[in-house]
Every structure is written in structure tokens, then in C-alpha cells.
Amino acid sequence: MRALIPVSDIMTKDVIALNRNDDLERAEMLFKRYRIKHIPVVCTDVVIGMLSFTDLQKISLAEASADEHDVNTVVYNSYTIEQVMTKQVVTIPPSTSIKEAATILSNSPFHALPVVEEGMLIGIITTRDLLKFYSKNF
């Protein structure tokens, strides 16, 4: 059955990641440049957290300001990535079935799972990846 295919077959392998020492302005730039919603935070390729675009929106005070960039800069400089990121990250091995990943995501408040092998980040699977797979195959 197609749903038993491992996530390694459909995950994003070229993962955009942040280091714990990066700043939130860099995070915002990556979210916008790559049009992504989730970025794993790593320390030497080991996942220590997850930052979502929604996390940035929660701390941003400027929604429609003419000086939005300036206000965001001040706000972003008030926090570190480690203060904003989710620290309790659920990770999965590359052998996890697509069905199991879909079950985890459908029963969780988050929308991305870092894929880890031998403790190291090797990919990421998101609800968008799963929807693309299911729309092509079912």
C-alpha cells in the first residue's frame, strides 16, 4: 500500500535550518525567501527546537505599520531564537511510514516533523508534503 511508503521518499532533504545563535531577523528572511513555515533549530545538526512563522507573528507588534521593518527589528532583537522556538520537538526516523507521519501530524498542534537519523537532522516532512502525496496518489 502506498501509505506505507517511508517518509524518506517524500521528505524535503535540503532542509533550511537555523543555529541557536542565529537571530530572528535571519529567521524571518529565511521564511520569506524560501516560502516556508517551519525551520528546525540545530546545534551541530542535532535538532534542539523548531521555529514556525507563526512563532514570529506572535511576538511581532507591527501588523500594518509603515515602519514595520524597524519595529520588527526592535522586537526581534529583544528575543533569542531559543526563547521563541518550541523546545519539545517530535522527531521521526526516515523509515516512518507516510501513514504514521500523517497520523502524528493530524493528532498534534504542529505541522512539521524533523526527520532524524542517528541523532542528526536529515530531512523534514510537513502537512503540505503529505497533502501533495495524497493528492497525487489517492
Salient structural properties:
138 residues, alpha+beta, CBS-domain, two-stranded antiparallel sheet, 6 helices, 38% helix
In order across it, which strands form the biggest sheet? 1-2-3
Largest sheet: 3 strands, mixed
Mean pLDDT: 89
Strand content: 15-25%
Roughly how much helix do the residues carry, as a percent range? 25-40%
The N- to C-terminal Cα distance equals: 11 Å
Shape: globular
User: Could you say what the CATH architecture is?
Assistant: Roll
How many domains, in number, for the residues? 1
Structural class: alpha+beta
Instruction: Give the uncertain stretches in residue-range form.
Output: 62-67
What is the CATH homology-level superfamily?
CBS-domain
From N to C, what is the helix and strand string? Answer: EHEEHHHHEEH
CATH class: Alpha Beta
Number of strands: 5
Radius of gyration: 16 Å
Task: State the CATH topology.
Answer: CBS-domain
Domain CBS: 11-71, 85-138
Protein name: CBS domain-containing protein
Pfam family, one: CBS
Keywords: CBS domain
Please describe what this structure looks like.
This protein is an alpha+beta fold. It has a single domain (2-137), classed as CBS-domain (Roll), CATH 3.10.580. 38% of the residues lie in helices and 20% in strands. It has helices at residues 24-34, 53-59, 68-77, 81-84, 98-106, 127-137, and strands at residues 18-19, 38-43, 46-52, 112-117, 120-126. The strands form two sheets. It has a three-stranded mixed beta sheet with strand order 1-2-3. A two-stranded antiparallel sheet has the order 4-5.
